[in-house]
Amino acid sequence: MENKSTSPAVQLKGVYKRFGKVVAVQKMDLDFEEGSLVTLLGPSGCGKTTILRMIAGLEAPTEGEIYIKGKRVNDIPIHKRNLGMIFQNYALFPHKTIFDNVAFGLKYRNVAKGEMQAKVTKALEMVRLPGVEGRMPSQLSGGQQQRIAMARAIVIEPDVLLMDEPLSALDENLREEMRREIDNLQQMLGVTTLFVTHDQREALSMSDKIVVMKDGLKQQEGSPEEVYNYPRNHFVSDFLGHSNFFGGVIAGLEDEGVSVKLQDGNEFRVEHPGDWANNAAVELVIRAQKFELTYLDEAPPEPDMNTFDGTIKDRSYMGGEVSYFVELESGTMVHVIGIAKLTPFKKGEKIRLHVAPRHCGLLQKDKAGGDARPAK
Amino acid sequence: MPKISGWSLIRFYTILVYAFMFAPIVVVVVLSFNPEQFGSFPMKGFSFRWFIKLAQNQTILIAFKNSLILGSLTAVVSTAVGIMASMAFVRYNFPGKNTLNTLLLAPIMIPEVILGVALLLFIRWLQQPKSFALLVIGHVVLTLPYVLLIVQARLGGIKKEYEEAAQSLGANGLQTFKEVTLPLLTPAILAGMLFSFTISFDDITATLFWATAQNQTVPVKIFGMLRNSISPEINALGTVMIVLTIATPLLAGYLSRKLSRGS
To answer: Fewer beta carbons under 10 A from the terminal one: N or C of chain A?
Structure first.
């Protein structure tokens, strides 16, 4: 077909979207590799849905260009873009049978009757709901309806699959199952997919690439591991998981990392790649899950950890894990999430807090505060 | 005094309200079967005499035909215009949208006498004679607000995602409207047509200004008959009208339920 060889499946070049005075998306450059699953992750109102709607053709970019399979689509209306869309609330046509729903897109693609039948049957098999052709959407559960919506979108063999929070309307248990199913289906079909979500777990578990957004701006782009382990700024590290942030300065350069002195006087040894200058203002970032708690008389879990004594000020038991708030002797509060042992620590108990230097991240102070400015 | 509670008073009051509303109608229906020229109770027998006389009255039959044609035309035109206007108001944004919408709904608030005179003066100014077309236009103006309210409410309830899904699958604007929007609007369309028909069929105030001797509707005809004499025929005609205006919506409701179950 078109020049498939080098151009990305979907490409955004300098896209801006303004609604009156509100800037929904700014300076957006994105490349989707053919066959990859890209997630737009961010809080509501960050512009992620607007990007999806611009790729779909439901909104026109104020500035910039959008390419699908190397072809500029700015002026191509939605019904000629060959897309599959999945909505949060399924959007199955309530007055049509499941067969007519799934076959809807085929009607506009000159597919012969018999072939249509075969394609619908195959699509329903792929979403593991064979034999429901004659039913009405209202006779199916939410999860089943979303699968039919999947079948309706993939049966037309779209160039791009666009999913707008497809799991949000489902129950917690069903969500995990559907997530895996979408993941499998996407890999099996190899269709380029854009997945929009505010749920970091969904994003981390299924994406080839995550694009974290805030206020219409791209904050960071990379593989799930990159984005999670090496957040570029305060916002990203805060949004992906529960992080502790401490202001401090570089107090010493060592062979394998640096020493950071916090405002409360505590010093942390940190192993974080990057060029750090002595006395530079930094922000120390430590995820709540990376701490380990022991009793005062216990041996540390591993050698060479940053170790501080403190008191459990508050805790909430969440089944598999326990969330603690620990007050260090310096008065600093630390949020710790630990695996729930049979006897969790109690409120008021004196404990010792450990964290390995490799689990301590550093952000430059200017980057830490500047997450709303365009990222380079 | 254990029995006279607040509730029994309310019940009594409610019964009075209903009696006040429906007793005159019941009297008309009962008297239409009275064989005597002058109605009085107790009735002396039961007959279809006035219905038969009614069926032989050529002018009334013509008025009846006029009313039916006028009502049907009004329903069709009003609903067609109403659907298009509603689509514009609910699905699109354009300057002056709210003002325009309020203007179209205004005939509900404006007294019918004024509407009647205004349209008449307008037609005079255009130097056009009164005609059946004038009646249709007038009745569309009267009924359009109701269609707009019903269709807009329903359209607002139809999620935009249905249309977006259809478009993403390859349907253009017209195909989307035909395949998705229109079928989902059907209940509102039926209701709108029904409303228009009954309002048109019932209307007298404005119609009095617009009707000519050739284009009399049933209410105008009844009004004319009352000026000359009080014939029991009018009771019979009233009964027919009541049956018709009650039966039409019931039938439509039954049909639409049957249709939606069938599909």
So the answer is: C
Domain for residue B96, yes or no? yes
A199 is a domain residue: yes
Mutate to test the interface with B, among A93, A116, A155 (most CBs of B within 10 A): A93
Q: Domain holding A345: CATH number?
A: 2.40.50.140
How do the pLDDT tens digits run along chain A, 376 residues long? 444 456 789 999 999 999 989 999 999 999 999 999 999 999 998 999 999 999 999 999 999 999 999 999 999 999 999 999 999 999 999 999 999 999 999 999 989 999 999 999 999 999 999 999 999 999 999 999 999 999 999 999 999 999 999 998 888 888 888 999 999 999 999 999 999 999 998 999 999 999 999 999 999 999 999 999 888 888 998 888 888 999 999 988 887 789 999 988 899 999 887 788 888 899 999 999 899 998 888 888 888 899 999 999 998 888 888 999 999 999 899 999 988 777 778 889 999 999 999 888 888 876 444 443 333 3
Give the pair of three-digit tokens for residue A288: 């709540």
Tell me if B184 is assigned to some domain: yes
How far is the CA of A324 from the CAs of A215, A285, B3, in angstroms? 31, 17, 65
Domain that holds residue A214: 10-234
A53 shares its domain with A196: yes
Shortest distance, CA A275 to any CA of chain B (angstroms): 49
Here the CATH number for the domain that contains residue B101 is 1.10.3720.10
Distance separating alpha carbons of residues A153 and A195, to the nearest angstrom: 14
Q: Output DSSP code: residue A357.
A: G
Q: Answer yes or no: do A74 and A210 share one domain.
A: yes
DSSP lists the bridge partners of residue A248 as: A262, A282
Give the span between the Cα atoms of B171 and B163, in whole angstroms: 9
C-beta separation of B202 from B223 below 8 A: no
- B171/A91 Cβ within 8 A: no
B165 touches chain A (CB under 8 A): yes
**Residue A1 domain-assigned?**
no
Distance CA A351, CA B263 (A): 68
Check: pTM over 0.90? Answer yes or no: no
